[in-house]
Amino acid sequence: MPMSCNGINNKNINNGSTNSRDPLPPAAPPVSPSGKFPLSSTQQVVWLDQYLRPDSTCYNLGSVVLIEGELDEALLIRAFKTVVYRHDALRLRLVNTQELPLQELTTPDNVSVAIRDFSGHADAEEQAKQSIHAVFTCPFDLNGELWRFELLRVSDHRWYWQFCCHHLIGDAITLGLIAEDIANIYRCLIRGEEITQAAPSYLDFIDEDHAYLNSQRYQQDKQFWLERYKNLPPELIQPANTAEKADNKHPEPLVWQWDQAFFQRIEDTVAVQGLSVLHFMYAVLACYFSRTTYFSRSDFSQVGFSQVNSSEEIVMGIPVHNRKNAKQKRTIGMFSSVIPVGITVSPDDTFLDVMNKTAAELRRCYKRQRLPIAEINRLIKTQQKSGRTQLFDIMLSFEWIAVNADIPNATLNYSKIQRGAPFPLIIAVHQYAFANSEDTHKPVTFEFDFSPDYLSRAEVITLQSRLSVLIEAALASPEMPIRNLPMLPESEQQRLAAFNATRMDFPPDGSVNS
Q1: Over the stretch 233-243, which tens digit does the pLDDT of each residue have?
Q2: Which residue from 51, 295, 102, 98 is spatially nearest to 206, judged by alpha carbons?
Q3: Average pLDDT of 449-457?
Q4: In terms of CB atoms within 10 Å, which end of the chain has fewer, N or C?
Q5: How far apart, in Å, are the Cα atoms of 179 and each of 42, 46, 182, 420, 434?
Q6: pTM of the entire predicted model
Q7: How far apart are CA 131 and CA 154, in angstroms?
Q8: Closest of 296, 328, 440, 414 to residue 42, by C-alpha
Q9: End-to-end Cα spacing for the chain
């Protein structure tokens, strides 16, 4: 297993020092004689970061589903309990050791589900909203259950279910699979049908992952990333001054809704070039951050940027599902990883140039996506060289997940997707949809999740308004050099014009020196 996690008790975890002659991963058996299992490499990355930030909730992950119509609450609870029995990832518990924790399967004798009834309150929706926020922002005890499930009633025909888990046992795909399995099992229970299809096991992935960590492919992936990032890129987002950090450690994300017509314009633009929406959005962010640096945090919401005239490498994290076959795509558990994708951007590049650079680099990096990001950071000595714990400050996520499930006499719609912010800024373009509901007609969601240790809400609002201008310009003129693409909204242009209005009239009969 990667040395980045093996060295957890070596005391050089705090000063970042590592041995330049790292041994190969040990060939330990995937299952110990006591019936305990190692963490997968993707779990190790999450656990290590949580270990270093024990009070953080940045790895909380969840979804809220709205139910409208008729509901048998007892059967829905029974359906969820059946899901827990079926999927071993939901029955994993960590076991502390002298080094990395192990994990073991527990018998879910008493699956705990909270039912909250707000239907008697005049402000039932607000009460439910506050409860949902409180549950999501509560830290998990890593030695206990790593998920929570609640059913919230707001009227006789309206409920929410909230599923929240630690990223150690689930990822974005897991959220969709959980919802689908709950709905399918509920439908079977209503109809009195047997559930015959077995659920795939996450333990199989742990075995397969162990084989990877002891393979030649693992060594080749390490070499690729070591050569790719011999030189570290600059920071894109500076930490906030201590005095300016927000008291709220769980800020609500900034949500920007795109209607279908606007999203279709983006899809049409990239389709002509044989590119994707992910390429487009990466290019938008690369153009923005290649042209801007924070002049001062107090001035960010006004002008806050200076032109950069030289070429500069922009690196952002791109999540990968890391599920290589049909079985893994149906397995509840933690598979996902993040790869650092970097391109060099010049002011003379056109927006189309930047998209093509992005596409080429993504193709290259996808082939080496399996190596954990913690191992990449260790290999290239991110902390020793820069004092930073991560190679990148921004993660760009593009998630399109359709859940093929419904329940009798009611409709299901996604109300909210919840995620923490383990990086200064996460920008997620996503649509989670129940295939047979109104979800498929909802606007596409562009969501900014941010850490208040780096950004204030006002700064994120300013960023969103500038990206809106830049996206419109890129759609109108993809072959324009990026140095000429406008970024400032009208309000900022007016403030800038007022700031620069320094012209003075002098008396016609006087001199400048008089």
Answers
A1: 988 998 887 55
A2: 102
A3: 92
A4: C
A5: 23, 23, 5, 20, 9
A6: 0.84
A7: 12
A8: 328
A9: 79
